[in-house]
Structure formats: C-alpha cells, structure tokens
Task: structure prediction
Amino acid sequence: MKRFAFFIVLITLVSACKKGQTDFVISGVVSDLTFGKPLDNATITITKKSAGNEELIHVATLTTDAEGRYKADLKRDKFISVNIQVAKDGYFTVDKIVSFSDLSVKTDNLVMLSTTGKSWARIVLKHNESPTTKLDLVRTKGKSDCVECCPGGYQQFVGIIDTVFYCVNDANTTYEVTYLKQGTSFNGTKSVVTPYMDTVDIILEY
Result:
C-alpha cells in the first residue's frame, strides 16, 4: 500500500514537472495613462509567429479584470515570438512583441502594457483672397506615432482654401500647430487641450 502511494506521488510530481517544462504563463497589467488607473474590460489578443512563417497564429483572446490584469497559458512549441495586443473602444490599440528567447518556464512572464484614450483636434483652414497664397503648417505638439495620426512634418496649402481635417491625439494632452503665411506677418502657433473622446477646433483664417 505504501509502495502504491509512493508511485502515485511520484507520477504527480513528474506530471507537474513536465507541465512546467512545456508551458509558458504570460500575465500582466494594462494601464490607462490618460486617467492614471488600470484599464478594465480591455480585450487582450495573443498570437504567435512560427519559425519560417510570417502568419500569426491565434493563441487566446481574453479580457482584463477590474484591476487591468490578464493571464494566459502558452504552449511551448515551435514559434519565434508572441504578440500581445490590447484594444478597447475609445483607446489606442497597442502591441507588444516578445521573443521566444525572452520567455521563461520557471516563473510567470510579466508583460506590462499601457495605452491612452483618444481625442481629436479639428483643423479649420479658411482663405478666400488669392489663388497664389501659401500657408505653411507644422504640427509641433501632438500624437505622431500611430496609423491614424495626421501626417507629420511640413505641410503647405496653396490658393483659395476652405477645408477641415481631423487629427487624432492622446486624450487630455496638447495639440499644437505652427503656421506661416508666406510673404506676410501672419505667423505663430495655436494650441488646444483635447479632452477624452472630444474634439476641439484650431481655426486659421488668413
């Protein structure tokens, strides 16, 4: 009877060791940088990239809890990296890539993520005097590192203009443009603070 119990314990220990050797655990917390708190109810999508294949393979989709926490098991098989994406309505989607070589089977792999809420600056340009007028415009403050962002750098608008365009921004932060109407003294900067999920105008009538 004692020998049978010993074998049961031994089998349990071996099984536990094997599981620890083959599985990764990925966990972390998603932070809301706009309001300085954990981001609850955000969707976490985990995919992996296999060696020699650019296709992303779905691993898991889960939701952060009230404290912004998430946790997922990842089988240790042939892949070179894992991508962890966080998304929520009203927030910028962010991705974090972790290489296979950076993962450990001994402890949970902590992957901390953060994102910001969305807002918009509405740029309004109006000019009706001359078809040869040139206005130079440069974004000097504001979000610039996203697919949705307005083009960075120098922009020039020529002629009769009556146009509106929207520039996405990190919520509760400053969006600023510097402008110059060539050949005149009309120049300077205009800035606004863009509240979460709201739009604020920057109007240039020249």
